[in-house]
Amino acid sequence: MSAKDTDWDGVRLHVVTGKGGTGKTTVAAALALALAAGGKKVLLVEVEGRQGIAQLFDVPPLPYEERKVAVAPGGGEVFALAIDTEEALIEYLEMFYNLKRAGKALTKLGVIDFVTTIAPGLRDVILTGKVSESVRRKEKNGRLIYDAVVMDAPPTGRITKFLNVSDEVSTLAKVGPVRNHGDLVMGVIRSPQTAVHFVTLLEEMPVQETLDGLHDLRETGVPLGSVIVNMERPSLLTEADLAAATAGELDLDEITQGLKAAGLDQHAAEYAAILAVEAGEHAQRTALEQREKARLEHLPRYDLPFLSDGMDRAGLYELAEALRDQGAA
């Protein structure tokens, strides 16, 4: 699939958010692999300090530097960065105030923790600033270092405030380097080269948070990306059987005969009754998921399968392939 066949041609910053427990970091990693396919170079950035990326790719904890963590299909490369707020603030002071030594002194005194505690908006400015710098960074020949940057961002409940840097900066500075830096960051975040993707499960609370997040972010002018349904379980029954299971009208004799045909003669009737109960529970869950999925009208939407064997590197590549097949990369 060529770049022009994707839904995100021209997008260079992919921000991935989602309610806790939806697999946000896993999806961000899979998206980075999908975007890197075919020889691209992609940076995957973590901003919450959990070292989730290192765990997914089974590598040692990431330092505050960009390191290659995976090779994508077709020879592409995925680099990863776990942003350390303290190091990023020192870098920020050096870049805008030429105060690298002062920044290290402030670290020893604990002033950085104090500053980011009393002015939490500054922390978000630093984190988003580092990511936007990675998007803009070029080699000496003028070529962009990375073809795309994927940010494993804060959860849905905090994503609007986190990305709306201009409002946060306005409370810190009206003019000067801090304000200019905030404007530069928002120039990237509000541009067509950014897309914010929401990860959800087909459950009521994650879906509602996704819908609320889409609404809130739309108000800020930050470009919306996709909704990514994670861990979707396929239905194991036909529509007719689902309806019968929901109504408690499955044919127990038919199930019993099927079990006997499979060699389970002993206790076949007992097992059939147990299976009928489980089928009813499965039908109820399937109906719930279909109802929640119908609420997700935002497009594009990508559906990722539930991996019964658990999540490992092979699983990441499987999810990346599913994203590519659906046009995400």
TrEMBL record:
Check the record and name the SUPFAM superfamilies matching this protein. Answer: P-loop containing nucleoside triphosphate hydrolases (SSF52540)
Report the domain of life of the source organism. Answer: Bacteria
TM stretches of this protein: none
Residue intervals of the ArsA/GET3 Anion-transporting ATPase-like domain:
13-172
Pfam families reported for this sequence:
ArsA_ATPase (PF02374)
PANTHER family in the record, alphabetically?
ARSENICAL PUMP-DRIVING ATPASE ARSENITE-TRANSLOCATING ATPASE, ATPASE RV3679-RELATED
Q: What is this protein called?
A: ArsA-related P-loop ATPase
Q: Which organism is it from?
A: Actinocorallia longicatena
